[in-house]
Amino acid sequence: MTGQVQGKVALVTGGASGIGEAVAQLLAREGASVAVTDIDDLKGPEVVAGIKKAGHDAVFLHQDVTSEARWVEVVTEVEKRFGRLDILVSNAGIGISVPSIVDMSLEDWRRQTAINLDGVFLSVKHCLPAMRRTGGGSIIMMSSLAGLRGALNLAGYCATKGGVRLFAKAIAMECASVGDGIRVNSVHPGIIDTPIWAKFQRTRREAEQTHRLIRKNARGWPRRSVAPASLPKLPAVCCIWRPMRQAT
Ligand SMILES: NC(=O)c1ccc[n+]([C@@H]2O[C@H](COP(=O)([O-])OP(=O)(O)OC[C@H]3O[C@@H](n4cnc5c(N)ncnc54)[C@H](O)[C@@H]3O)[C@@H](O)[C@H]2O)c1
Predict the structure, then answer these.
(1) pTM score, whole prediction
(2) What is the tens place of the pLDDT at every residue in 104-120?
(3) CATH number at 9-241
């Protein structure tokens, strides 16, 4: 690894699993101190223990990204512990699949929107001032291919991820207009084989369909990292998935 983020401080939401876990590990390997946040109090500390065992600096903070009060506490804790915040990876998300949009309850629609969209809004609202105090940085919002085009049975998910995409563009314009030195990107993975797919399913039939979908369409696994130098134009966290055909 090349120390691309040496001395930086990163906050990764949803860092206990899948893409967030891989992002946290990669940022740590590249030299950042990483605050891993998640609602999963079992796996989050395990991820941090693994990062520390490898000789890097990390902390786990319990966080539900939909709680504004907790965002205030988390940002305060990160600044207190590490003295600054340079990188926000707003990654926590869920997916709710329904056979038809008429089957979707308002409760599920709101839950998914609260985590995928409100959570990203709150992350930026509370991390941007800290990053401005640092004097610059990078915000990465985890959207999806489903934020660029529609996906069958995932209308609500698409709505949240499309929202994240345009939210990122608007925040990028704000940061550029004030010249605060903060870069803003949304990331749009295709199908990555992570635990999120198991959480989509409610019936055995859905589980079989999902398994077939992943086998046919998965673009990669989260932990097979590409050397960042081979993708120089992308932010470091874009390099966490690797086309399966090239995987070793
Ligand atoms: N896996 C894919 O194919 C894929 C493709 C495109 C985009 N994404 C996006 O990537 C992100 C990560 O997905 P993943 O595949 O790694 O899923 P994952 O289920 O493996 O990880 C998601 C993490 O988010 C956490 N989380 C859920 N609700 C939370 C909340 N309210 N507050 C804090 N943390 C919460 C979970 O506990 C989990 O650790 C998501 O935003 C997802 O929509 C995934």
Answers:
(1) 0.90
(2) 999 999 999 999 999 99
(3) 3.40.50.720
